[in-house]
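Input chain follows. Return structure tokens only.
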Amino acid sequence: MATFTPADHAALIRRYFQACNDADYEALVDCFTPDAVHYFPPGLPDIPWRSADVIARKWIWCVNELGSQWTIEKILVSHDSPEAVIEWTHWKNKSGTALRGDEWYRFDPATGKIAEIRAYYAAPADRAVQINELFAFDYAARGYHLRSE
């Protein structure tokens, strides 16, 4: 069995986000095990997303329909288990809104690919605000992106 390092896992997450931003189906599918699952908080239709194919198609829809782009704010990778956690921002450029949150990743030890993602939002999606994020947290002072790149 292959051995994957924390650096390998971090690189895969970065490759996954680039594939999302590029709406690249093949690159997205290549990041996941075929039976991967992406979990979300309540409120979205058709969740969880089950399979690399479904995950890829859903993110491509977001890019095409919402103008979605994503930035990674922080990555922490476990040194002793095939897991990682990140903070991200989902920029919905067509509506001028954004959502911040975290994701926990579980990697398949045999392939190093993403087997599971569990998404957590920083705040409930509130249509009355432009950027959904933690209240009174100084994103600018902490070096977070303040707009889509």
